[in-house]
Amino acid sequence: MTKAEREKWKSYIRERVELNPATMCWEWQQACEKEFGGRRRRGYSVAKYTINGKRTKISGHRLSYLAFVGNITSDLFVCHTCDVPWCVNPHHLFLGTHQDNMDDMIRKGRKTVPVVPYENRRRGAKHYRAVLLEEDLPVIVERLLAGETQDAIAEDYGITKYMVSRIRRKKAWMHVPEVRDAKYAAGHSIRLTQKKADAIRRLHDSGYSHSKLAAAFDVSLATIYDVLAKRTWSSAC
């Protein structure tokens, strides 16, 4: 930003603020972005301007820092010492990283959700939304390894197929040893065997459609495509 541009924006800002004598905040009197900070009445200040014929906007406190203090690199935030989002007083602004901003928020007690160490978090059956118990997981894993469908397991335990899939993919209940240590056939559908895969190829050659093969072998179309392209189950009998 050139010196002339700085002077222009300084005047622009001064015309749109009102000094709060109690806090010395320059309170923005025009548009405030309501979506920022979850505030229903006022949020961060918004300055609108035209560049290359295109109407755009920038936060007022960021513009104030550029005009009164200096340039800002793209990786830095403009933070408030006063914690008033609509304040644009350059003396109340400082540069910091996202982590600096978070640390400042926690230090001032403005973080509403407490940071709970991982080891203290409620996991498994202790979670308030849990349906399963820890002792259910070894049985579920055993059934998955035996080739039972995720739909059948989900129905028996009153959970979603998505949850069964997360257990199989080791995205949930990883604190249970049987889930963590389970070894599934990598890249293979657990509903198929090598003999079934070879049968799929023979039937396809004889004229069976992809959808009929998927229905006959109770697998997805994606699995049929992978078998036919020999991306899985490629070994000969």
Quickly list its features:
two-stranded antiparallel ribbon; three-stranded antiparallel β-sheet; alpha+beta; Homing Intron 3 (I-Ppo) Encoded Endonuclease, Chain A; single chain; 3 domains; 237 residues
Task: Write a short abstract of this structure.
The chain has 237 residues and is of the alpha+beta class.
> What is the overall silhouette?
elongated
In terms of structural class, how would the helical and strand content be classed?
A: alpha+beta
Measured distance between first and last alpha carbons: 72 Å
Number of domains: 3
Helicity level, as a percent range? 25-40%
Query: In which order are the strands of the major sheet placed?
Result: 3-4-5
| Number of DSSP-assigned strands | 7
Would you kindly provide a written description of the structure presented here, covering whatever features stand out?
Helix content is 38%, strand content 14%. Residues 35-41 have low confidence and may be disordered. It has a three-stranded antiparallel β-sheet. Strand 4 (44-51) and strand 5 (54-59) form a beta hairpin. The protein has three domains: 3-107, Homing Intron 3 (I-Ppo) Encoded Endonuclease, Chain A (Alpha-Beta Complex); 132-181; 194-228. The radius of gyration is 30 Å and the shape is elongated. The protein has 237 residues and is of the alpha+beta class.
